[in-house]
Design a protein that fits this description.
Keywords: ATP-binding, Nucleotide-binding, Transport
Domain ABC transporter: 8-259
GO molecular function, one term: ATP binding
InterPro entries: AAA+_ATPase, ABC_transp_ATP-bind, ABC_transporter-like_ATP-bd, ABC_transporter-like_CS, Oligopep_ABC_C, P-loop_NTPase
Pfam families: ABC_tran, oligo_HPY
Strand order of the largest sheet: 6-7-8-3-9-10-12-11
Distance between the termini: 26 Å
Number of strands: 12
Largest sheet: 8 strands, mixed
Helix content: 25-40%
Structural class: alpha/beta
């Protein structure tokens, strides 16, 4: 990893949603959707983000790309702090930072043809004017994403879910970005279509050296596509490591429980499912000490009183747990 260029640095990033109208002020009651997250992303790398619903994965992705304004912290992309950019400066930066949305049904304008959906960002950013060159580029983009170019004058409702997601991927690739946030891009698709979309994304990554943040609930999919995996819980990054390390040697009780719940594809093998006890606490009233302590089978007094610091238990293996490295 050391020889790769760092493309993104997230430092102490927070995104709080105030419960009262108006801008958030320190001490106001709020939903702590993203709470003090730090990590790096390297060129050509895929970082997988996993965790239960409501843990802040999608909010983190949207805050990084500034679809949500960060409450505090830094997002350094290619050496520039995204959080301090003006609206005009962000417009130019969006050529390099793109987003694939989760729902292929609601993320496409039903009143626009596929051609117009793909051409719109190219025209808006001054890459092309309407004419034969734009037509050829859009049709080539569709071909690369596995869509027949003669489909370009159809509307989104005329496509299947997998085809719509390919349109979403084509739109994110239109401006030739170096970084894409993928917010559960295959969760709404059939398993056979999922594999096609994942293989397409991997092929595009190899061709263009794109960096991905891949958000998903499916730990098997994340293991297949990711280089490193981050595990989130109640807005915090509980564990971050190389995918092989985190799946074979998880050091946080929450990570161990998630991996223990993955079903085996072989029906002849039996496995005891490790169910996490209790309900996810509220993001408004976060438990004192370690956020996971009410549900943790290994919790001790220190876990209920003191929030653990993130520590590096092995090279590039980070755990937010008082007893990380002891499991």
């Amino acid at each position: 990893m050391a020889e790769k260029r760092k493309i993104l640095e997230v430092k102490n990033l927070k995104k709080y949603f105030p419960l009262k109208k108006g801008k958030y002020k320190e001490g106001d009651p709020c939903v702590k959707a993203v709470d003090d997250i730090t990590f790096d992303l390297y060129e050509g790398e895929t970082l997988g983000l996993v965790g239960e619903s409501g843990c802040g994965k999608s909010t983190l992705g949207r805050t990084i790309i500034r679809l949500y304004e960060p409450t505090s912290g830094e997002v350094i992309f290619e050496g520039e702090d995204v959080a301090k950019k003006s609206r005009k400066e962000m417009r130019a930066l969006r050529e390099e930072m793109q987003f694939i949305f989760q729902d292929p049904y609601s993320s496409l304008n039903p009143r626009m043809t596929v051609f117009n959906i793909l051409a719109e960002p190219l025209i808006a950013h001054g890459k092309f004017k309407r004419g034969p060159e734009l037509d050829a580029y859009v049709k080539d983009l569709m071909d690369r994403c596995g869509l027949p170019s003669y489909y370009c004058y159809r509307y989104p409702h005329q496509f299947s879910g997998g085809q719509r997601q390919r349109i979403g991927i084509a739109r994110s690739l239109a401006l030739d970005p170096s970084f894409i946030i993928c917010d559960e891009p295959v969760s709404a698709l059939d398993v056979s279509i999922q594999s096609q979309i994942i293989n397409l994304m991997k092929d595009m990554q190899e061709e263009k050296n794109i960096s991905y943040i891949f958000i998903s609930h499916d730990l098997s999919v994340v293991k297949h596509i990711s280089d490193r995996v981050g595990v989130m819980y109640l807005g915090s990054m509980m564990e971050l490591a190389d995918k092989n390390e985190i799946y074979s040697n998880p050091q946080h009780p929450y990570t161990r429980a998630l991996i223990g719940a993955i079903p085996l594809p072989d029906p002849t093998k039996r496995k005891e499912m490790k169910v996490i006890q209790g309900e996810i606490p509220s993001n408004v009233n976060i438990p004192k000490g370690c956020k996971f302590n009410p549900r943790c089978p290994f919790a001790k007094d220190i876990c209920r009183e003191q929030e653990p610091a993130t520590k590096e238990v092995k090279p590039n293996h980070f755990v937010k747990c008082h007893f990380g490295g002891e499991f």
